[in-house]
Amino acid sequence: LYFRTLMYRIVNIIRNGIKPVFVLDGAAPDIKSTVLEKRQKQLGHSGSSSTERQKFTTCSKKCIELIEALGLPYIVNSGEAEQMCAWLNSSGKVDGCISDDGDCFLYGAKTVYRNYDQTKKDSTIERYRLETIEDKLDLARRDLIVYALLSGCDYNEAGVQGVGQKKTLSFIQTLKSTDNDVLTRLVYFIFKY
Asked: Domain holding 121: CATH number?
């Protein structure tokens, strides 16, 4: 099923005049293992994480074979794919990243396309630009990093206990009124206490 889905997506992307560059995950950092195991359980996978990783590796190899057969470029990153996607985007090598993972902005992406849906007659996708987030929410990349750390992200899923999204946003806005670099201020606070 994943193979057929990938093929349809590739055809649809190319049909729309997009020249894709595929980026695949390498080894996940150890700090993310708890989150990955939890996701496997939510998906109904009861096997060990090493078994699931083997399945993922097999799936990735088959996807690479398809991508190679179509003559399309791809990169297997040494770590998170979003990190490489963001670098490719921020350095101007690609116009944007197609990913449902918000970490792309934390890694420095300028444009992220999410919620790609080709089930309807016309495919749809949502575009998010860091510039728009900065203008409308007054949140720069470093502010988004603080937001993710406090309210929850792949590396700290629960975030800070008792601090949700609204409190985090309010905290960031309060700090920004006295200091533009909220991330530096947060790091200073953590290491001071």
From this structure: 3.40.50.1010
